[in-house]
Amino acid sequence: MTGIAGMAGNRGRNLMHIADLAPGGAELAVVLTNSADAPVLDEAEKRGIPTEVVELGEDESRKEHESRVLDALAAYDFDLVCLDGYMRILTDEFLDDAPTTLNVHPSLLPSFPGMDAWGDALDAGVSMTGCTVHVVTDATDESGEVEESKVDSGPILTQEPVPVYEGDTTDTLKERVLYQGE
Question: Model pTM?
Fold first, then answer.
């Protein structure tokens, strides 16, 4: 059975779908969040999934925080990391020490990487957007700074198209991508 370490920053809706469906014999070994108030904690508890909270400390570097995340995950048996709204760009140190890490991004990559995929799609006037599951790759330069051109640029595993309708707002498009695409 494949164990998954899920990392979420909010609801973890996709992670809970994995827990409910257990595709291909996979199961969530742990759900980790960087927010003690994240609703995913309650949802995981309802399903009997262990949880960990590793909040970013004041003045803590990205690498220091990721080291604590890896320490918290070390107690669990997993073969895959799945991000679900984790909203942190991971460094090569994390990615080198963790198993393959996947992310769900709310656009048809390579179009509209980054934080405002729905707004970017509307601004571009496209008729189709969607979501992408991709392998997370290092998006930092040699000094550890994020290179925007490298964010959400890992190999694509699958995509689900979602139409953009005339009159869509960021909220209506976001809702459709989250509930029809993902």
Answer: 0.90
